[in-house]
Structure formats: structure tokens, C-alpha cells
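Board notes (copied after class):
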Amino acid sequence: MAVKIRLQRQGRKKTPYYYVVIADSRSPRDGKFIERIGTYNPNTNPATIDLNGDKALAWMEKGAIPTDTVHRILSYKGVLFRKHLNRGVKKGAFTAEDAEKKFGQWLEEKAGKLDQQINRLKDELNKEERTRMERESKVAHARAQEILAKKLGAPVPSEAAEGEEEGGETPANEAVEAAPVAQAETPAAEETAAPAAEEKNNEEPAA
């Protein structure tokens, strides 16, 4: 029976997470499995991996074959390096104590690299946050300036309005005042012309 170390999909659509399982290669991807040895969540940055390295190493030494993705996960967690060290111990290249010491140094270097990656991601996130806040501040300032301009903005007073405020008379007012005078003079002229016309009519029969 061919045994594989592979991923079993879980989670909702577009937000999957996976179980790392030991399963028969003939069973479906999300079907029956022999043992669950960890989880893998690619939705975080960096990805979250919880793996039982001892069980993974034991199954690999029994002949279990990891898939490509699981192979990268095992390499990332140091399982493949431990397998390499165990092979060296069996061949007599170094002792088990030396193997443990080398693996401890590898873990320290890995932890340092991981901390650097996390700090770099935090710096990038803080930089993006500052840029976003500066952009929003500029937009808010521009909107405030527009609102203030609308509140303070007023139509420019015309010359006629300025003349009225100063108490002066405009040409329109003079024309309004002159109109009644002309209307008052018109009836007097008509009365003067009427008797003259009557006298002329009275004189014509005599001629």
C-alpha cells in the first residue's frame, strides 16, 4: 500500500485551510485518512503551520511520500533536515549529540529569519497605513476648504446697490421722480389748448 503525506482541504469557498494527513494514495483527496499530523493555513502572512514533526519524520522513514506542497512544508519546518541528520548518524558521519546541536542551530537561524520577515511585514503595513492616513487627511482638508469657501462666499455688490447703501440717488430714482412732474404738467396744457379751440370754432360762422 502506497502511503502519502498530503493536504486535506477544509474551510469555506476562497478561504481554505488544510489538514496535513497520512492517507492511502488510492483514497480521494478529502476522503478517509490514516492519521492527522498537522494543519496549514495559507490565509495568513506568513502562512500558519502547525505540524507534529516527530510523526512526520517517523512516517517518512517508513516510506511515506509527501506531495509537492507538503514537501515544501516539511522543508520549512525542518523535518527534511532532521531526516538528513538521522541518515548521517546511521552512517556514522557524526554522533546523535552533534545532530541535535546542528538542528538546534538551524532552528535558531530559522527563528531569526522568521522574526526578520515578520518585522519587515509590520514595517510595510505601518508604511501603508501612514500613507493611507495622509491621503485621507489631504482629502478631508480639501473638502473642509470647499465647505468653508461656500459658507464665506457671497455675490459681489453692484454699483447701484452701493449707491443705495450710501444714500445717493440713482438715475432710476431720478426718472421715477421726474415722471409725476411730467404727468402733472400735461393736464394744464390740455386745458389751455381746449378754450383756444372753442374760440376758433365760434369765430368761423361769423366769417
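Comment from the instructor: Residues 96-152 form the longest helix (57 residues). The longest strand covers residues 3-12.
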